[in-house]
Every structure is written in C-alpha cells, then in structure tokens.
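Backbone-to-sequence.
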C-alpha cells in the first residue's frame, strides 16, 4: 500500500517508521528543509515541497496513493491537504491529525477527512480508560456515518456479566468488534461469554452511545429481601 504523509516532524516520522515495518511504501512530504532528515527514515521516499500546493501533490503522484495522512502541527494545513487529497486526487482514505481540540468540528467528510485523530483527546481518553470502569470512553471519531470507536470496561455489577454475546439485545448502529481480556484479544463470537473486567471495544453511532453505556453498566436487580 502506498501512503503519503504530509508533515515530516516527529509524528510523521514515527508513523512512517511503523508503516514501513509493516511493509508499506511511504512518501514523506514537508516544506521545511530542516525537516528533511532522510537518515532518520532511510527507507521512505522524501519530497521537499508544500503539501498545500497542487503542483507539489502532482509531483508526489498523490493519485497513486491508497492513503494520505495529514500529520502536520498546523490544523489549517491538515484540512487543506485532506480536502485536496480527496477532491482533486480521489484518495480512498484520508486520515488527519487534529492539534487543537477546538477545531475537531471542522475535520469531517466535508473537508475530505475519513478519520480524525485528536492527540489531546486520545491522550485524555487513554487516561480515562485506565481509571474508568463502567464509563464509556470515546477513543476515535470516524467522519463517515458519524461513528466513533468507544471502549467500556464491564463492571462486576453489570447485568451482562456471564451473558453470551449473542444473547445481548445490542442497540442499533453499534458493533462489538473486540474483547480485551487480560493479555488476550478476542474476536467476539455469538457464543463468547462476557466477563467482569472485559474491555469491550465498539464502533457505535454517537446517538447510541448513551444507550450503550446504560446497557453495559446497569446493575443486577437486588433479589434480597
């Protein structure tokens, strides 16, 4: 897969390194000569150019890319790169970095963004995920369909502990994609039994998040007395 990354700073180089290890073809683009550090990511292609300029993107042959990642430290640049990649070059998948959480509302399909990654939000979500049991934590927002990747750790008092996945009446527009149990990552089958302490990852419509949280956190009815 060919991936173009706009922004060759620490974030862009780190992404490039990970993708290269997975066998992908990487092009790093940056307009700052000081950012062109070929020795740091020697297996990547490098282009000294302004990723907001059509001539630069023509030179990068963006139309041959399967994915474009707008990873600069400037939200305005990331939005322009995303829009050009999608509208002018028909790139199938556009991922954009959000630096200022106040700008998240802009990073939508209207600007060509398929997936918006807010570093501050992700960091705060990971903190919440580490200390929260029974609370839904939003990890990632997908622009298409207004869906989010969300996580909830099943509390011991949940009525669903001990219930098979296939027996749960899940809300509409939600999909359980992974169960993390200790060190294991499980693909949920209909026969898989939910256990207290399971980390459940869903792709869910934002409108269904509250309903999903209520379902997973509900306490068992008190049968004493």
């Amino acid at each position: 897969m060919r991936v173009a990354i706009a922004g060759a700073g620490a974030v862009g180089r780190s992404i490039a390194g990970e993708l290269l290890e997975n066998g992908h073809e990487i092009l790093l683009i940056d307009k700052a000569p000081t950012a062109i550090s070929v020795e740091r990511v020697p297996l990547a292609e490098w282009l000294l150019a302004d990723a907001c300029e059509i001539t630069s993107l023509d030179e990068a042959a963006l139309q041959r890319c399967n994915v474009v990642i707008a990873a600069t430290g400037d939200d305005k640049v990331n939005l322009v790169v995303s829009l050009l990649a999608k509208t002018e070059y028909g790139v199938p998948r556009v991922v954009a970095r959000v630096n200022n959480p106040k700008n998240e509302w802009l990073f939508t399909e209207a600007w060509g963004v398929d997936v918006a990654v807010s570093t501050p939000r992700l960091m705060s979500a990971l903190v919440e995920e580490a200390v929260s049991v029974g609370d839904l934590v939003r990890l990632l927002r997908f622009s298409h369909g207004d869906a989010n990747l969300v996580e909830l750790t099943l509390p011991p008092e949940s009525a669903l502990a001990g219930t098979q996945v296939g027996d749960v009446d899940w809300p509409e527009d939600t999909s359980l994609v992974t169960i993390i149990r200790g060190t294991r990552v499980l693909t949920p089958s209909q026969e898989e039994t939910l256990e207290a302490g399971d980390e459940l990852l869903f792709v869910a419509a934002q409108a269904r998040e509250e309903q999903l949280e209520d379902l997973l956190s509900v306490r068992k009815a008190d049968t004493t007395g």
